[in-house]
Amino acid sequence: MIWSPRIGIAADYAGGAALLGDLLRVVGRGLEDDPEFAECVERTAAHLEKQRAAYFILETGEMISVTDEDPVAGVERLVSSGIPAAVAQARAAIAGDDDEWLTSVRADWQEHFASFYSDHLYFSFPG
Fold first, then answer.
1. Are 8 and 1 in contact (CB under 8 A)?
2. Which residues touch 52 (CB under 8 Å, ≥6 apart)?
3. pTM for the whole thing?
4. Which terminus of the chain faces fewer neighbouring Cβ atoms within 10 Å, N or C?
5. Hey, which residues does 12 pair with through a beta bridge?
6. Euclidean distance between CA atoms 127 and 125, whole angstroms
7. DSSP bridge partners of 11
């Protein structure tokens, strides 16, 4: 939305939020005694509830701009392979078909789930 090229991604909100909730539940099965993980799940749920809409909007500008890849090509790659692969891996873990990946996510959950939610998008332009 703040970028000139068409690089935003919209997706079904309810399906995405449900998938994330299910994944957090299975990851949490090994982290019941971790208060930081519990807090992360609570913050995530509260933020998702506050942002509830028909669609998620993923602004990919910051992610794509850190590489030398053409921004539009980078987003097309995310949509055609990156996001579907991540969704398939999450679904497999939820179904109990990828315990190895689930164990690795659980061991480093902060890297995968820790985030800082805000009601405002902050950005700056160089120079």
1. yes
2. 13, 17
3. 0.81
4. C
5. 55
6. 7
7. 56
User: Digits of tens for pLDDT over the chain (127 positions)?
Assistant: 566 777 888 899 999 999 999 999 999 998 999 999 999 999 999 988 988 899 888 878 777 878 888 888 988 999 999 999 999 999 999 999 999 999 999 999 999 888 766 665 555 556 5
pLDDT at 36 (0 to 100): 95
| 8 Å CB contact between 59 and 2 | yes
Q: What region does 96 belong to: left with phi over 0, alpha with psi -120 to 50, or beta?
A: left
H or E element that contains 8? strand 8-12
Question: What residue type is assigned to position 90 of the chain?
Answer: A
Q: Which two tokens stand for residue 36?
A: 């930081």
Could you tell me which of 72, 65, 62 has the C-alpha nearest to residue 123? 62
CB count within 10 Å of CB 104 equals: 14
